[in-house]
């Protein structure tokens, strides 16, 4: 074991990271810096400071990263319309690069020679954190306790906490029925009942959204304004990126929007069943595609759709800081320069219905050409005959060849 002098720990103050903090002190006997990030998880994070102090920690970082998270990570991802395996909006995946970046920055600020996280050895998060660490500081030492210790179950963690006098809140002693992760974009649920993919999730599990059948009987209309592919205003009120997501979450949750029950393919090789609530992201995605439909050139739009699965897989697997993701982002951002305008959506019982869209400056939709009425010569219908024949030429040649070979 390499001698570690100081380590920066991603610290929530919950059971896992509290045990990790004590374990690091006992096993590595090093100085520890704790880092707690507020990325919109909706829980009070200040108690983490008191918890860290109770362990004798002197360097404690507690930071509000909500605006940076929304502006520099969530919004760029949604410019690409990124979805993993056709459904997952990457809520957990996109948060990890920011946490990893800030950990490395704190390590440099405090002179730490190691970083540590609480991700297990079965999940994707260990990959996401550590690919970020190594991309930003190649020689950093990474401590992943779940891959080193013999505390292989929740019961063993609780026993360790009791033995070492680690205070655990009553809700953690009782135990939550699900493993949950939340941020400004989503909340996820894994474990317990969900480990049987044949069983329907309990209604009591969902926290952000009402059941669609219990949502209001009247639809709600929302006007969404875009500039360069990002939302800048809701119902004519300009908002910051974090405020946009918070408001969309509130509206989407109210109308039962954004629930997902998914069996996904983890990067580490196994299939995993998880449930997600992404109310704001679901509205954002639908609206963004709507404004792109009138502002993007056809071939640019189609090329973006071809890139998207690759881009989404890179984020899912932890390659946010990779050169290929950055290259794709440059192309995506260039495509968004003229994605300006507004979209009107109707929110109703789990659905986001686009009912209007317009761009005063960048719309490529020309009513004079698209009309079914008299276009006064804007489009010559007879031109279509040659266009069709030329596009059919290869198929006509192949059919004629096959017929000649049969004679």
UniProtKB/TrEMBL annotation:
Keyword Isomerase: no
Residues the record lists as binding L-aspartate: 120, 124-125
Annotated Arginosuccinate synthase C-terminal domain residues: 178-397
The protein's assembly and partners: Homotetramer.
Alphabetical list of PROSITE patterns matching this protein: ARGININOSUCCIN_SYN_1, ARGININOSUCCIN_SYN_2
InterPro entries: Arginosuc_syn_C, Arginosuc_syn_N, Arginosuc_synth, Arginosuc_synth_CS, Arginosuc_synth_type_1_subfam, AS_cat/multimer_dom_body, Rossmann-like_a/b/a_fold
Top-level EC class as recorded in UniProt: ligase
Protein name per UniProt: Argininosuccinate synthase
Limits of the Arginosuccinate synthase-like N-terminal domain: 6-167
Keyword Cytoplasm on entry: yes
């Amino acid at each position: 074991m390499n001698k570690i002098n100081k380590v920066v720990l991603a610290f929530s103050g919950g059971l896992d990271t509290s045990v990790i903090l004590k374990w690091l002190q006992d096993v590595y006997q090093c100085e520890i810096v704790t880092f707690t990030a507020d990325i919109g998880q909706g829980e009070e994070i200040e108690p983490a400071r008191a918890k860290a102090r109770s362990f004798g920690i002197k360097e404690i970082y507690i930071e509000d990263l909500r605006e940076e998270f929304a502006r520099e990570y969530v919004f760029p991802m949604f410019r690409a319309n990124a979805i993993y395996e056709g459904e997952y909006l990457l809520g957990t995946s996109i948060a990890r690069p920011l946490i990893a970046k800030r950990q490395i920055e704190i390590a440099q600020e405090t002179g730490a020679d190691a970083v540590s996280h609480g991700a297990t050895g079965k999940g994707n998060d260990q990959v996401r954190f550590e690919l970020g660490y190594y991309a930003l500081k190649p020689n950093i030492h990474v401590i992943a306790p779940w891959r080193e210790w013999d505390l292989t179950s929740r019961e063993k963690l609780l026993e360790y906490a009791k033995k070492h006098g680690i205070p655990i809140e009553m809700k953690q002693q009782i135990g939550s029925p699900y493993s949950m992760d939340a941020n400004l974009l989503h909340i996820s649920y894994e474990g317990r009942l969900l480990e049987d993919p044949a069983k329907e999730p309990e209604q009591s599990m969902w926290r952000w959204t009402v059941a669609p059948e219990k949502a209001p009987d009247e639809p709600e209309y929302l006007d969404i304004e875009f500039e360069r592919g990002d939302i800048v205003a809701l119902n004519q009120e300009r908002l910051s990126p974090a405020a946009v997501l918070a408001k969309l979450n509130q509206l989407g949750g109210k109308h039962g929007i954004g629930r997902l029950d998914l069996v996904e393919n983890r990067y580490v090789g196994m299939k995993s069943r998880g449930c997600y609530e992404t109310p704001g992201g679901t509205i954002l995605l639908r609206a963004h595609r709507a404004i792109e439909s009138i502002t993007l050139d056809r071939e640019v739009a189609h090329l973006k759709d071809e890139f998207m699965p690759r881009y989404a897989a890179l984020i899912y697997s932890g390659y946010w800081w990779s050169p290929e993701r950055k290259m794709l982002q440059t192309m995506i951002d260039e495509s968004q320069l003229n994605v300006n305008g507004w979209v009107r959506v109707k929110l109703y019982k789990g659905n986001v219905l686009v009912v209007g869209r317009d761009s005063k400056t960048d719309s490529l939709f020309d009513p004079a050409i698209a009309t079914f009425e008299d276009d006064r010569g804007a489009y010559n219908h007879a031109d279509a005959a040659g266009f069709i024949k030329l596009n059919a030429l290869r198929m006509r040649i192949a059919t004629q060849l096959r017929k000649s070979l049969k004679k």
